């Protein structure tokens, strides 16, 4: 309700109640509610849930609470795809850049995330066996390579493209549309459903791969589905909202500390808390420098990094490390 009724336009809770009761709104308020705020709220819920579930999957897969959706290079690949579209999109033949319009960046980012995942999977898979440690190292290398290529493209960009690159890299829901929601929702919903199905296997994997296999878990299938699901959710999130960090890192870690490591509960809780936190961050970003907007990526990093450091220190002191 706060997300729908807060902003520069004078649309309050009374107007929202009138719309729910069918009393009607003015044409201006209808546009604000149905075409701006509702898709922004829905996209925030989807992106937040997708990032948090991706983090929960990867932390369970790597058995490391510091794992993050960016650790396998998906975010870097998606970012590189978006930068390619912004800087070199005008060179596409047959007027594709004009035809696709704003959707070009989202499509390129999604393709970049999937391409990075496929490259990593091929590197880390040999004889139908996926080496998670090798994938982690390859992800670090791919992130560095994507960062270098992004730097080259940034150097070649003109002033307008630099502004677009800067704003996109910080992450925002300001350009939310029903079309972007339709692009992100199927992949995120699929990832969430698969993650729920994998929860028992992830619990068994916490005991080690050999023990999980003895318990009847198909470890290779579990790895493959977890990686692809995390890539799908993260790639779609980056494609529609840009770079938003720390949701996938802090949310699952915080829930593990407070609710326990059982993935049967952790994954749906991560989806709910991630969605709520991103909507809250979006609300604060609209109010803190009103009437302008602070990019959400700045806000999540500003508050997420100190909170995560506090959690690390608290956990170290509690365990006597």
Task: Walk me through this protein's architecture.
Helices cover 76% and strands 1% of the residues. It has 321 residues and is mostly helical. The protein has one domain (2-319): ABC transporter involved in vitamin B12 uptake, BtuC (Orthogonal Bundle). The protein is globular. The model has no long low-confidence stretch (mean pLDDT 84).
Main features:
15 helices, ABC transporter involved in vitamin B12 uptake, BtuC, mainly alpha, 321 residues, single chain, two-stranded antiparallel ribbon, 2 strands
Oligomer: single chain
Strand order of the largest sheet: 1-2
What is the number of strand segments?
2
**CA-CA gap between termini:** 43 Å
The largest sheet, given as strand count, sense and whether it forms a barrel, is: 2 strands, antiparallel
CATH domain topology = ABC transporter involved in vitamin B12 uptake, BtuC
**Helix/strand order:** HHHHHHEEHHHHHHHHH
Give the fraction of residues assigned to helices.
over 70%
CATH class: Mainly Alpha
Give a short synopsis of this structure.
The chain is built from 15 helices and two strands.
How is the topology of this model organized?
Layout: H1 2-5, H2 13-20, H3 27-62, H4 74-88, H5 96-100, H6 103-124, E1 125-126, E2 129-130, H7 132-156, H8 159-170, H9 178-197, H10 199-205, H11 209-214, H12 219-241, H13 247-259, H14 263-287, H15 296-319
Antiparallel strand pairs: 1-2
Helix pairs in contact: 3-9, 3-12, 3-13, 3-14, 4-6, 4-7, 4-8, 4-12, 6-7, 6-12, 9-12, 10-14, 13-14, 13-15
């Amino acid at each position: 309700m706060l997300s729908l009724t807060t902003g520069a336009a004078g649309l309050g809770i009374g107007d929202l109640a009138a719309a729910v009761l069918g009393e009607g709104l003015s044409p201006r308020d209808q546009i604000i509610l149905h075409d701006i705020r509702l898709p922004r709220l829905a996209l925030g819920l989807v992106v937040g849930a997708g990032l948090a579930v991706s983090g929960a999957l990867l932390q369970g897969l790597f058995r490391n609470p510091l794992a993050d959706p960016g650790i396998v290079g998906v975010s870097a690949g998606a970012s590189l795809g978006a930068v390619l579209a912004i800087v070199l999109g005008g060179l596409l033949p047959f007027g594709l850049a004009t035809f696709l319009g704003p959707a070009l960046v989202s499509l390129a980012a999604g393709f970049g995330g999937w391409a990075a995942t496929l490259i990593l999977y091929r590197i880390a898979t040999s004889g139908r066996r996926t080496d998670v440690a090798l994938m982690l190292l390859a992800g670090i290398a791919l992130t560095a390579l994507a960062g270098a290529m992004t730097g080259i493209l940034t150097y070649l960009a003109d002033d307008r493209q630099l502004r677009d690159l800067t704003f996109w890299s910080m992450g925002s829901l300001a350009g939310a549309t029903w079309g972007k929601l339709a692009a992100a929702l199927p992949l995120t919903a699929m990832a969430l459903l698969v993650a729920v199905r994998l929860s028992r296997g992830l619990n068994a994997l916490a005991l080690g791969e050999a023990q999980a296999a003895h318990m009847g878990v198909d470890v290779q299938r579990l790895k493959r589905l977890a990686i692809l699901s995390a890539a799908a959710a993260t790639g779609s999130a980056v494609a529609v909202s840009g770079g938003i960090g720390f949701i996938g890192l802090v949310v699952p870690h915080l829930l593990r500390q407070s609710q326990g490591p059982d993935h049967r509960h952790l994954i749906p809780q991560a989806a709910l808390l991630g969605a709520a936190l991103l909507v809250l961050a979006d609300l604060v970003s609209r109010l803190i420098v009103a009437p302008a907007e602070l990019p959400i990526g700045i806000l999540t990093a500003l508050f997420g990094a100190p909170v995560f450091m506090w959690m690390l220190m608290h956990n170290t002191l509690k365990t006597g490390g």
